[in-house]
Write a structure and sequence with these properties.
By secondary structure, the chain is of the alpha/beta class. The protein has seven helices and seven strands. About 40% of the residues lie in helices and about 15% in strands. α1 packs across α7, α3 packs parallel to α4 and α4 packs parallel to α5. Bound molecules: nicotinamide-adenine-dinucleotide.
Amino acid sequence: MRIGESVGLFTGGASGLGAGTARMLAERGGRVGILDLPSSAGERFAAELGEPALFVPMDVADEGQVEKAVARVAEHFGRIDVCVNAAGVSPATRVLSRKGELHPLDVFRRTVEINLVGTFDVLRHAVAAIARNEPGPDGERGLIVNVASAAALEGQTGQAAYAASKGGIVALTLPLARDLAIWGIRVMTICPGIMDTGMLAGADEKRRAALMDLHVFPKRLGRPADFAHLVASFMENELLNGEVVRLDAATRL
Ligand SMILES: NC(=O)c1ccc[n+]([C@@H]2O[C@H](COP(=O)([O-])OP(=O)(O)OC[C@H]3O[C@@H](n4cnc5c(N)ncnc54)[C@H](O)[C@@H]3O)[C@@H](O)[C@H]2O)c1
């Protein structure tokens, strides 16, 4: 897949990993559909990227909005080549707190609804658009990149909902790749470690240092550019399919 000729759709595209990857694609000559909440920085970010970018405000947990948003990107740019599902939330709640409070069920449901069901809903509409592309020399039509987490494999205290939602994304990877092989669409999943994004916005210096220390080498937080670089290599290497890749400086949570 040629990066400079590609149209990318990015959920969670207004911040962090999604925004970093949208920026990479736009800077390398591609065009980008940025899908994120109306309250996000999407409008400002798309204006900064200029003509190759389109912001579509939406909520990945709303079925009607997902269908319309994906159709809007496909219509505006005439195609979709790569879909990166980076929208996500990461609540922290113990199943039974020290005070004896139960994990609210709606927090669990909402997390799965956004991180897992939202990812699946966006990608099912995206693949319908990608399937309309003319296949490349080896039959390739496009690529789906889903975002799980190291927590999908080693969820920490308070991460039951988050880990369950991200574990679902890991489990989806191979069956999706198998389903979509007939269309020439590849599916890859990234499990980031500790990345310096909006998700760390509330962390003070002490907490950031403790999180950074979880990375074995290099001893720094991951950057959106590290993530974007990995997505670019997925785009360029069509033998990568049906695989889950950790991007975590050897951390084991
Ligand atoms: N930052 C990390 O350390 C880390 C580690 C592992 C996995 N991840 C995953 O990476 C992905 C990207 O997160 P990030 O670190 O860039 O965080 P971020 O907070 O910077 O970006 C997440 C984006 O998702 C959007 N979003 C949230 N709920 C949404 C909804 N319902 N509909 C549409 N958009 C919605 C937010 O508005 C935000 O722009 C997430 O799925 C996250 O779980 C992050």
